[in-house]
Design brief:
This protein is of the alpha/beta class. It folds into two domains: about 180 residues, Rossmann fold, CATH 3.40.50; about 60 residues, no CATH class. The protein is about 35% helix and about 25% strand. It has seven helices and nine strands, in the order E-E-E-H-E-E-H-H-H-E-H-E-H-E-E-H. Helix 2 packs across helix 3 and helix 2 packs parallel to helix 4. It is globular, with a radius of gyration of 18 Å. The chain binds adenosine-5'-triphosphate. The site of adenosine-5'-triphosphate (ATP) has 11 residues, from helix 1.
Length: about 250
């Protein structure tokens, strides 16, 4: 792992990527302003903040899709995979084929990619009968599982997720949240999850970073207790605290 000694707070032995004092302008308008963020292996970071504040922009910056106008982004971003809100599966390919395509960047041959895709779909909780269905034949929850499996097929170190569980019912969201958390721990992934759902952040994140409407870091909070030890009272208390901190900072600005 890389150490980024120049980060605020000093060196972080498990840092996988670091954003330092990053500014991004899009269409001639400032979107992110002086953002610092460290992401670590086996750690899930939730990014919260109002619509349009730059959460997706921050993911794209971390994933190397855009470069900062000022500041730096460090770390090995070659082994990065994205999961998008709309999942972006190829509609003319089956679930299995979509996942096998995700492994194209690896050295695996075709039969091995196929076996890998089956293993990953199983790990992501898709039942074997659904492997040969097309995206239009899958439920939203099943599509989210396929999208996660496809992202894992690239054997990423850094997993960037942009509201991947939006629009799913509560039970399905919980099931997918639990699965994502288990993947982070089992595979030692550094995961960054953009979410509007404070309960989701309070349930599965290790750290929460809040972005303000003007694209600055409002606050960052390390959540106490490992997610497995967070019962519903702790989760609700943490979500309430996050909401209060967001509201307090909002009213400071008014
Ligand atoms: N390619 C672009 N060109 C110009 N402006 C852009 C571009 N992409 C995004 N923006 C603007 O940058 C701002 C931040 O967008 P971004 O998608 O990062 O916000 P977000 O916090 O993820 O929003 P949401 O929560 O609604 O998904 C928005 O005002 C958006 O309109």
């Amino acid at each position: 792992m890389t150490s980024f000694a120049t980060q605020p707070g000093g060196a972080t032995p498990d840092a996988l990527a670091a954003v330092t004092a990053a500014c991004v302008e899009l269409g001639g308008r400032p979107v992110l302003q002086g953002v610092d963020l460290i992401v670590e292996a086996a750690c899930l970071t939730a990014i919260i903040g109002p619509s349009g504040c730059g959460k997706t922009t921050l993911l794209r910056l971390l994933g190397g899709l855009i470069e900062p106008t000022q500041g730096r982004v460090e770390g090995n971003r070659e082994r990065t995979a994205f999961v998008f809100q709309d999942h972006r599966l190829l509609p003319w390919r089956t679930a299995l084929e979509n996942v096998a395509l995700g492994a194209l960047s690896t050295a695996a041959g075709r039969p091995e990619r196929q076996r890998m895709a089956e293993r990953l779909l199983s790990e992501c909780g898709l039942s074997a009968e659904a492997y040969r269905l097309y995206p239009a034949e899958l439920s939203g929850g099943m599509r989210a599982r396929v999208a996660l499996a496809r992202a894992l097929a690239a054997a990423p170190h850094l997993l960037l997720l942009d509201e991947p569980f939006n629009g799913l019912d509560l039970q399905m969201r919980r099931s997918l949240q639990t699965m994502l958390r288990a993947l982070v721990e089992r595979r030692g992934l550094a995961a960054v999850l953009v979410t509007h759902d404070l309960l989701e952040a309070a349930r599965i994140a290790d750290q929460v970073v809040a972005i303000s409407a003007s694209g600055c870091v409002l606050f960052r909070e390390r959540l106490s207790h490992p997610p497995a030890k967070r019962d519903s009272d702790r989760i609700q208390a943490a979500a309430r605290r996050l909401m209060q901190r967001l509201e307090a900072t909002d009213s400071d600005r008014n």
